[in-house]
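User
New here, help please:
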Amino acid sequence: MRRPKLSWRHVLVIGVVIGVIMGAGLFFGLIRPARDAVATLQGEVDSLDGQVNQPIPDPGGAGQYATAPEFLVAKQQELDQKSRELANALARKSPPGNVNVNLGDNSPIARMAALDRYWRLPQWVGPTMERFVERNAARHNITIEAPQFTVPSLTTNPAQIPDDIIAWNLGSVTGSGAFLDLMRWAEDFNTAPLLTTADGITLNLVNNDGDVSTTAAITVFIFPRLNPGVAPAGTATGGSGAGGSGGALPF
């Protein structure tokens, strides 16, 4: 049975679909909403902390909380639950504890101690993501060139280690094969060990049998650890900064 032929118009439309599929579905569908919910609840808890003996309406419509402290307890429980959900989501997409950046209380001393792991992190990220890309391609019968991932230059200043998200563009990957296989390969980037996006999607029709090729820029996002209750200060994401080494760091 012959496979259906693809025209250039089909390839153009499908390229848009693949661009959506290969976006950070986990981030927009789970991690970012969870983080936003935690931040919102934390603000509510902080605003209620100083209020006492004032009746507060139940926003769920089930009745009225007797006092602000009772409402505060309910909100604190909700905050704890959302915080656990966020921690679980991040843990599933984080490096192992022996290499993940742990900023502790985010103090200068803790940042200095974290510098060693920050510099060792690329030695885990590069090979791990290269193995994932190769296994993912083999699983879906996609032909690729062996990836050679790199990360931006890293800072030697502990104060410039990102404390919210470390975003590293590792380079590009080109894959080719049957269209449906390529679609499954693209979608499976959501199963990578790290939160991963594949951007700058291009599609090319390879032959009249409907085989296509695509090139995508691979970016990973890593979430440094902080002690419970310590909020990120919003240090700029990425790997570069004053005092960093020049050029890219190869694996």
Q: What stands out?
A: Residues 178 and 211 are 4 Å apart (CA to CA).
